Protein backbone atom coordinates (compact mmCIF):
# COMPACT_ATOMS: atom_id res chain seq x y z
CA UNK A 1 0.00 0.00 0.00
CA UNK A 2 2.78 2.35 0.90
CA UNK A 3 4.54 1.76 -2.36
CA UNK A 4 1.33 1.94 -4.25
CA UNK A 5 0.34 5.02 -2.30
CA UNK A 6 3.70 6.54 -2.90
CA UNK A 7 3.50 5.78 -6.54
CA UNK A 8 0.05 7.18 -6.75
CA UNK A 9 1.04 10.27 -4.89
CA UNK A 10 4.12 10.65 -7.02
CA UNK A 11 2.09 10.08 -10.14
CA UNK A 12 -0.47 12.55 -8.91
CA UNK A 13 2.22 15.06 -8.09
CA UNK A 14 3.95 14.45 -11.38
CA UNK A 15 0.71 14.81 -13.22
CA UNK A 16 -0.13 17.88 -11.23
CA UNK A 17 3.27 19.34 -11.99
CA UNK A 18 2.84 18.50 -15.63
CA UNK A 19 -0.54 20.14 -15.59
CA UNK A 20 0.78 23.25 -13.96
CA UNK A 21 3.67 23.41 -16.35
CA UNK A 22 1.28 22.98 -19.30
CA UNK A 23 -0.93 25.77 -18.09
CA UNK A 24 2.14 27.98 -17.69
CA UNK A 25 3.20 27.30 -21.25
CA UNK A 26 -0.31 28.09 -22.50
CA UNK A 27 -0.46 31.41 -20.64
CA UNK A 28 2.97 32.40 -21.95
CA UNK A 29 1.96 31.63 -25.54
CA UNK A 30 -1.22 33.69 -25.30
CA UNK A 31 0.70 36.59 -23.84
CA UNK A 32 3.20 36.42 -26.69
CA UNK A 33 0.38 36.36 -29.23
CA UNK A 34 -1.29 39.41 -27.67
CA UNK A 35 2.03 41.25 -27.59
CA UNK A 36 2.75 40.55 -31.24
CA UNK A 37 -0.72 41.69 -32.24
CA UNK A 38 -0.34 44.92 -30.29
CA UNK A 39 3.09 45.47 -31.82
CA UNK A 40 1.69 44.91 -35.30
CA UNK A 41 -1.10 47.37 -34.65
CA UNK A 42 1.35 49.94 -33.31
CA UNK A 43 3.56 49.44 -36.37
CA UNK A 44 0.64 49.86 -38.75
CA UNK A 45 -0.47 53.01 -36.88
CA UNK A 46 3.04 54.45 -36.94
CA UNK A 47 3.36 53.56 -40.62
CA UNK A 48 0.12 55.38 -41.43
CA UNK A 49 1.16 58.43 -39.42
CA UNK A 50 4.58 58.44 -41.09
CA UNK A 51 2.90 58.17 -44.48
CA UNK A 52 0.59 61.09 -43.67
CA UNK A 53 3.50 63.16 -42.42
CA UNK A 54 5.58 62.43 -45.51
CA UNK A 55 2.66 63.19 -47.79
CA UNK A 56 1.80 66.42 -45.97
CA UNK A 57 5.35 67.74 -46.08
CA UNK A 58 5.53 68.09 -49.85
CA UNK A 59 1.80 68.50 -50.41
CA UNK A 60 0.35 71.35 -52.45
CA UNK A 61 -2.26 73.78 -51.09
CA UNK A 62 -4.90 71.81 -52.95
CA UNK A 63 -4.25 68.76 -50.71
CA UNK A 64 -6.30 70.37 -47.95
CA UNK A 65 -9.29 68.40 -49.19
CA UNK A 66 -8.76 65.07 -47.45
CA UNK A 67 -11.04 62.18 -46.55
CA UNK A 68 -10.94 59.97 -43.49
CA UNK A 69 -11.62 56.91 -45.62
CA UNK A 70 -9.16 57.18 -48.50
CA UNK A 71 -9.97 53.85 -50.21
CA UNK A 72 -13.42 53.25 -51.66
CA UNK A 73 -14.50 50.10 -53.53
CA UNK A 74 -16.95 50.76 -56.33
CA UNK A 75 -17.77 48.38 -59.14
CA UNK A 76 -15.08 45.99 -58.06
CA UNK A 77 -12.37 48.65 -58.31
CA UNK A 78 -10.57 50.59 -55.61
CA UNK A 79 -10.36 54.39 -55.77
CA UNK A 80 -8.10 56.60 -53.70
CA UNK A 81 -10.16 59.61 -52.67
CA UNK A 82 -7.07 61.67 -51.88
CA UNK A 83 -5.79 61.32 -55.43
CA UNK A 84 -9.22 61.73 -57.04
CA UNK A 85 -10.12 64.90 -55.08
CA UNK A 86 -6.72 66.49 -55.66
CA UNK A 87 -6.89 65.70 -59.39
CA UNK A 88 -10.40 67.17 -59.73
CA UNK A 89 -9.40 70.35 -57.91
CA UNK A 90 -6.32 70.70 -60.07
CA UNK A 91 -8.38 70.21 -63.21
CA UNK A 92 -10.84 72.87 -62.05
CA UNK A 93 -8.10 75.38 -61.29
CA UNK A 94 -6.28 74.69 -64.54
CA UNK A 95 -9.53 75.15 -66.45
CA UNK A 96 -10.14 78.48 -64.73
CA UNK A 97 -6.58 79.58 -65.42
CA UNK A 98 -6.83 78.75 -69.13
CA UNK A 99 -10.26 80.39 -69.35
CA UNK A 100 -8.95 83.54 -67.66
CA UNK A 101 -6.02 83.66 -70.08
CA UNK A 102 -8.35 83.42 -73.08
CA UNK A 103 -10.59 86.16 -71.62
CA UNK A 104 -7.58 88.37 -71.02
CA UNK A 105 -6.49 88.04 -74.66
CA UNK A 106 -10.06 88.76 -75.80
CA UNK A 107 -10.23 91.86 -73.58
CA UNK A 108 -7.03 93.22 -75.08
CA UNK A 109 -8.12 92.57 -78.66
CA UNK A 110 -11.43 94.37 -78.09
CA UNK A 111 -9.68 97.28 -76.36
CA UNK A 112 -7.17 97.64 -79.21
CA UNK A 113 -9.91 97.55 -81.84
CA UNK A 114 -11.99 100.09 -79.92
CA UNK A 115 -9.02 102.43 -79.62
CA UNK A 116 -8.35 102.37 -83.36
CA UNK A 117 -12.03 102.82 -84.20
CA UNK A 118 -12.41 105.71 -81.74
CA UNK A 119 -9.42 107.46 -83.29
CA UNK A 120 -10.93 106.93 -86.76
CA UNK A 121 -14.30 108.30 -85.56
CA UNK A 122 -12.70 111.45 -84.12
CA UNK A 123 -10.75 112.07 -87.33
CA UNK A 124 -13.90 111.61 -89.42
CA UNK A 125 -15.81 114.00 -87.15
CA UNK A 126 -13.04 116.59 -87.48
CA UNK A 127 -13.08 116.20 -91.26
CA UNK A 128 -16.85 116.62 -91.30
CA UNK A 129 -16.67 119.80 -89.21
CA UNK A 130 -13.99 121.23 -91.49
CA UNK A 131 -16.05 120.43 -94.59
CA UNK A 132 -19.11 122.03 -93.02
CA UNK A 133 -17.17 125.22 -92.29
CA UNK A 134 -15.74 125.54 -95.79
CA UNK A 135 -18.97 124.70 -97.58
CA UNK A 136 -21.77 125.94 -95.34
CA UNK A 137 -20.66 128.55 -92.82
CA UNK A 138 -19.23 130.81 -95.48
CA UNK A 139 -22.56 130.98 -97.29
CA UNK A 140 -24.61 131.26 -94.09
CA UNK A 141 -22.69 134.21 -92.65
CA UNK A 142 -22.01 135.98 -95.94
CA UNK A 143 -18.26 135.40 -95.84
CA UNK A 144 -16.32 134.66 -99.05
CA UNK A 145 -15.95 131.07 -100.12
CA UNK A 146 -13.57 129.34 -102.50
CA UNK A 147 -15.27 125.93 -102.85
CA UNK A 148 -18.82 125.25 -103.91
CA UNK A 149 -21.31 123.94 -101.38
CA UNK A 150 -22.47 120.97 -103.47
CA UNK A 151 -18.99 119.48 -103.68
CA UNK A 152 -18.60 119.46 -99.92
CA UNK A 153 -22.07 118.09 -99.38
CA UNK A 154 -21.20 114.94 -101.33
CA UNK A 155 -17.93 114.59 -99.41
CA UNK A 156 -19.76 115.12 -96.11
CA UNK A 157 -22.33 112.46 -97.01
CA UNK A 158 -19.57 109.91 -97.62
CA UNK A 159 -17.80 110.96 -94.41
CA UNK A 160 -21.00 110.60 -92.37
CA UNK A 161 -21.72 107.18 -93.87
CA UNK A 162 -18.27 105.93 -92.87
CA UNK A 163 -18.72 107.48 -89.42
CA UNK A 164 -22.04 105.66 -89.01
CA UNK A 165 -20.40 102.34 -89.94
CA UNK A 166 -17.62 102.95 -87.41
CA UNK A 167 -20.16 103.79 -84.71
CA UNK A 168 -22.15 100.60 -85.37
CA UNK A 169 -18.95 98.56 -85.16
CA UNK A 170 -18.05 100.19 -81.84
CA UNK A 171 -21.49 99.45 -80.38
CA UNK A 172 -21.10 95.81 -81.44
CA UNK A 173 -17.69 95.68 -79.74
CA UNK A 174 -19.23 97.11 -76.56
CA UNK A 175 -21.69 94.21 -76.53
CA UNK A 176 -18.82 91.75 -77.13
CA UNK A 177 -16.79 93.27 -74.30
CA UNK A 178 -19.57 93.01 -71.75
CA UNK A 179 -20.48 89.54 -72.93
CA UNK A 180 -16.92 88.51 -72.07
CA UNK A 181 -17.35 90.37 -68.77
CA UNK A 182 -20.44 88.29 -68.05
CA UNK A 183 -18.51 85.07 -68.73
CA UNK A 184 -15.74 86.31 -66.46
CA UNK A 185 -18.18 86.86 -63.60
CA UNK A 186 -19.75 83.45 -64.22
CA UNK A 187 -16.28 81.88 -64.04
CA UNK A 188 -15.79 83.49 -60.64
CA UNK A 189 -19.18 82.22 -59.45
CA UNK A 190 -20.41 85.80 -59.11
CA UNK A 191 -23.09 85.74 -61.78
CA UNK A 192 -25.62 83.09 -62.89
CA UNK A 193 -25.01 81.49 -66.27
CA UNK A 194 -28.63 81.87 -67.40
CA UNK A 195 -29.08 85.49 -66.27
CA UNK A 196 -29.68 88.26 -68.80
CA UNK A 197 -27.79 91.51 -69.28
CA UNK A 198 -30.57 93.44 -67.53
CA UNK A 199 -29.67 91.76 -64.22
CA UNK A 200 -25.95 92.29 -64.61
CA UNK A 201 -24.18 94.62 -62.14
CA UNK A 202 -22.53 96.45 -65.06
CA UNK A 203 -25.74 97.27 -66.97
CA UNK A 204 -25.50 101.02 -66.26
CA UNK A 205 -21.94 101.27 -67.53
CA UNK A 206 -22.88 99.24 -70.60
CA UNK A 207 -25.80 101.54 -71.42
CA UNK A 208 -23.62 104.64 -70.98
CA UNK A 209 -20.94 103.20 -73.26
CA UNK A 210 -23.54 102.28 -75.88
CA UNK A 211 -24.85 105.85 -75.80
CA UNK A 212 -21.34 107.35 -76.10
CA UNK A 213 -20.36 105.10 -79.00
CA UNK A 214 -23.66 105.53 -80.84
CA UNK A 215 -23.74 109.33 -80.57
CA UNK A 216 -23.05 110.94 -83.97
CA UNK A 217 -24.82 112.91 -86.69
CA UNK A 218 -26.09 110.45 -89.33
CA UNK A 219 -26.18 111.16 -93.09
CA UNK A 220 -29.05 113.32 -94.24
CA UNK A 221 -29.15 115.60 -91.18
CA UNK A 222 -28.70 119.04 -92.75
CA UNK A 223 -30.22 121.36 -90.14
CA UNK A 224 -28.87 124.60 -88.73
CA UNK A 225 -29.63 126.53 -85.55
CA UNK A 226 -28.77 129.97 -84.22
CA UNK A 227 -26.86 130.81 -81.03
CA UNK A 228 -26.53 134.26 -79.51
CA UNK A 229 -22.97 135.59 -79.53
CA UNK A 230 -22.24 137.23 -76.18
CA UNK A 231 -20.78 140.39 -77.68
CA UNK A 232 -21.83 143.51 -79.52
CA UNK A 233 -21.58 143.77 -83.27
CA UNK A 234 -17.86 144.05 -84.04
CA UNK A 235 -16.66 144.76 -87.56
CA UNK A 236 -19.90 143.68 -89.20
CA UNK A 237 -19.96 140.29 -87.39
CA UNK A 238 -23.56 139.32 -86.55
CA UNK A 239 -24.59 138.86 -82.92
CA UNK A 240 -26.45 135.64 -83.73
CA UNK A 241 -24.26 132.83 -85.00
CA UNK A 242 -25.71 129.99 -87.00
CA UNK A 243 -24.20 126.54 -86.49
CA UNK A 244 -24.70 123.41 -88.48
CA UNK A 245 -25.96 120.33 -86.66
CA UNK A 246 -22.64 118.62 -87.37
CA UNK A 247 -21.05 120.77 -84.67
CA UNK A 248 -22.31 118.15 -82.20
CA UNK A 249 -19.77 115.73 -83.65
CA UNK A 250 -17.33 117.46 -81.32
CA UNK A 251 -18.81 115.24 -78.59
CA UNK A 252 -17.09 112.25 -80.18
CA UNK A 253 -13.94 113.14 -78.25
CA UNK A 254 -15.61 111.29 -75.34
CA UNK A 255 -14.69 108.05 -77.10
CA UNK A 256 -11.10 108.60 -76.07
CA UNK A 257 -11.89 106.66 -72.90
CA UNK A 258 -11.12 103.57 -75.02
CA UNK A 259 -7.47 104.60 -75.03
CA UNK A 260 -7.51 104.73 -71.23
CA UNK A 261 -8.99 101.24 -71.14
CA UNK A 262 -6.32 100.01 -73.55
CA UNK A 263 -3.57 101.32 -71.27
CA UNK A 264 -5.20 99.60 -68.31
CA UNK A 265 -5.62 96.32 -70.19
CA UNK A 266 -1.97 96.19 -71.22
CA UNK A 267 -0.79 96.81 -67.66
CA UNK A 268 0.85 94.07 -65.62
CA UNK A 269 -1.90 94.27 -63.01
CA UNK A 270 -4.58 93.47 -65.59
CA UNK A 271 -3.13 90.14 -66.68
CA UNK A 272 -4.55 86.69 -66.16
CA UNK A 273 -2.24 86.06 -63.21
CA UNK A 274 -3.66 89.03 -61.29
CA UNK A 275 -7.25 87.97 -61.98
CA UNK A 276 -6.43 84.37 -61.04
CA UNK A 277 -4.80 85.57 -57.83
CA UNK A 278 -7.98 87.49 -57.09
CA UNK A 279 -9.91 84.22 -57.03
CA UNK A 280 -8.18 83.26 -53.77
CA UNK A 281 -7.94 86.70 -52.14
CA UNK A 282 -10.14 89.72 -51.55
CA UNK A 283 -7.83 91.90 -53.67
CA UNK A 284 -9.16 92.52 -57.17
CA UNK A 285 -7.34 94.28 -60.00
CA UNK A 286 -10.04 96.88 -60.62
CA UNK A 287 -9.53 99.68 -63.20
CA UNK A 288 -9.25 102.18 -60.33
CA UNK A 289 -6.42 100.20 -58.74
CA UNK A 290 -4.59 99.79 -62.06
CA UNK A 291 -5.01 103.52 -62.84
CA UNK A 292 -3.58 104.53 -59.48
CA UNK A 293 -0.66 102.17 -60.06
CA UNK A 294 0.08 103.73 -63.46
CA UNK A 295 -0.12 107.27 -62.07
CA UNK A 296 2.15 106.33 -59.18
CA UNK A 297 4.61 104.60 -61.51
CA UNK A 298 4.93 107.38 -64.13
CA UNK A 299 3.33 110.57 -62.78
CA UNK A 300 5.19 113.09 -64.98
CA UNK A 301 4.54 111.20 -68.22
CA UNK A 302 0.88 110.72 -67.36
CA UNK A 303 0.27 114.38 -66.48
CA UNK A 304 2.23 115.72 -69.46
CA UNK A 305 0.47 113.50 -71.99
CA UNK A 306 -2.95 114.26 -70.49
CA UNK A 307 -2.30 118.02 -70.58
CA UNK A 308 -1.04 117.94 -74.18
CA UNK A 309 -4.00 115.86 -75.36
CA UNK A 310 -6.52 118.13 -73.65
CA UNK A 311 -4.91 121.25 -75.11
CA UNK A 312 -5.09 119.88 -78.65
CA UNK A 313 -8.70 118.74 -78.33
CA UNK A 314 -9.93 121.92 -76.61
CA UNK A 315 -8.12 124.11 -79.14
CA UNK A 316 -9.81 122.31 -82.00
CA UNK A 317 -13.23 122.64 -80.29
CA UNK A 318 -12.61 126.33 -79.58
CA UNK A 319 -11.63 126.92 -83.20
CA UNK A 320 -14.82 125.24 -84.42
CA UNK A 321 -16.98 127.32 -82.07
CA UNK A 322 -15.36 130.73 -82.58
CA UNK A 323 -14.37 130.79 -86.24
CA UNK A 324 -17.79 132.11 -87.45
CA UNK A 325 -17.35 135.34 -85.41
CA UNK A 326 -13.57 135.53 -85.08
CA UNK A 327 -11.68 135.03 -88.37
CA UNK A 328 -8.33 135.11 -86.57
CA UNK A 329 -9.20 131.87 -84.79
CA UNK A 330 -9.31 130.15 -88.15
CA UNK A 331 -5.60 129.65 -87.50
CA UNK A 332 -5.10 126.66 -85.20
CA UNK A 333 -2.03 128.28 -83.63
CA UNK A 334 -4.12 131.21 -82.37
CA UNK A 335 -6.71 128.79 -80.99
CA UNK A 336 -3.98 126.82 -79.20
CA UNK A 337 -2.51 130.01 -77.76
CA UNK A 338 -5.95 131.08 -76.51
CA UNK A 339 -6.46 127.69 -74.83
CA UNK A 340 -3.10 127.86 -73.04
CA UNK A 341 -3.79 131.45 -71.93
CA UNK A 342 -7.16 130.34 -70.56
CA UNK A 343 -5.56 127.49 -68.58
CA UNK A 344 -2.72 129.51 -67.01
CA UNK A 345 -5.09 132.47 -66.35
CA UNK A 346 -2.75 135.29 -67.39
CA UNK A 347 -5.56 137.26 -69.04
CA UNK A 348 -6.82 137.80 -72.56
CA UNK A 349 -5.51 140.09 -75.27
CA UNK A 350 -7.08 141.06 -78.55
CA UNK A 351 -8.49 137.56 -79.11
CA UNK A 352 -11.06 136.32 -76.64
CA UNK A 353 -14.09 133.98 -76.89
CA UNK A 354 -17.23 135.71 -78.08
CA UNK A 355 -19.78 132.88 -78.35
CA UNK A 356 -21.43 130.77 -75.69
CA UNK A 357 -19.89 127.64 -77.18
CA UNK A 358 -16.37 129.11 -77.09
CA UNK A 359 -16.73 130.34 -73.53
CA UNK A 360 -18.04 126.94 -72.44
CA UNK A 361 -14.94 125.29 -73.93
CA UNK A 362 -12.53 127.72 -72.27
UniProtKB/TrEMBL annotation:
Keyword Nucleotide-binding carried by entry: no
Gly residues: bias regions: 13-27
The keyword Transmembrane helix belongs to this UniProt entry's keyword annotation: yes
InterPro entries listed in its UniProt record: K_chnl_Ca-activ_SK, K_chnl_dom
Positions of the UniProt region annotated as Disordered: 1-61
SUPFAM superfamilies membership: Voltage-gated potassium channels
Bias kind Low complexity: ranges: 28-48
Superkingdom per UniProt: Eukaryota
Occurrences of domain Potassium channel (ranges): 308-362
The entry's keywords: Membrane, Transmembrane, Transmembrane helix
Biased composition (Basic and acidic residues): 1-12
TM ranges: 115-135, 155-178, 293-318
Molecular function, one GO term: small conductance calcium-activated potassium channel activity
A GO CC annotation given for this chain: membrane
PANTHER family attached to this UniProt entry: SMALL CONDUCTANCE CALCIUM-ACTIVATED POTASSIUM CHANNEL
Protein name (record): Potassium channel domain-containing protein
Source species: Sexangularia sp. CB-2014
